[in-house]
Amino acid sequence: MVSSKRVKKVFGTKERPRLSVFRGLKNIHAQVIDDVEGRTLVAFSSLHLPKVKYGGNIACAKEVGKMIAEKALAKGIKKIVFDRGSARYHGRVRALAEAAREGGLLF
């Protein structure tokens, strides 16, 4: 049986790397990846936030978005391609994306 779903591949280059978001039950992770070289340029997670017991909420997602934008801008990355994975653009994923935009990333 063949699935009728279309699978789109989001691909990041050196000029526009990919911001990949993984939303787990207890934490949220974000990475800026250059797919041409196969390297992670910047990474941040709610696990890195100080004094946070539970990183699976919208407040932590906003902090991760701000921090990933700050780290990416420090490395000279301004334009990115957003990859939400299999998660819907909703809730924590949306909060992270909006915080990254407010932090200065363009996508």
Radius of gyration: 14 Å
Rounded mean pLDDT score = 91
CATH class: Alpha Beta
Using the 3D structure, state the CATH architecture. Answer: 2-Layer Sandwich
Overall geometry: globular
The percent range for strand residues is: 15-25%
SSE sequence, one letter per element: EEEHEH
Number of discrete helical segments? 2
Structural class: alpha+beta
Strand neighbour order, sheet with most strands: 3-2-1-4
* Tally of DSSP β-strands: 4
Instruction: State the distance separating the first and last CA atoms.
Output: 36 Å
Largest sheet: 4 strands, mixed
CATH topology-level name? Nucleotidyltransferase, domain 5
Ranges with pLDDT <50 over ≥5 residues?
none
Portion of residues within helices: 25-40%
Number of domains: 1
Task: Please provide a written account of the structure.
The structure is a single chain. The protein has a 4-stranded mixed beta sheet with strand order 3-2-1-4, covered by helices on one side. The chain has one domain: Nucleotidyltransferase, domain 5 (2-Layer Sandwich), CATH 3.30.420. It has 2 helices and 4 strands. It is of the alpha+beta class and about 110 residues long.
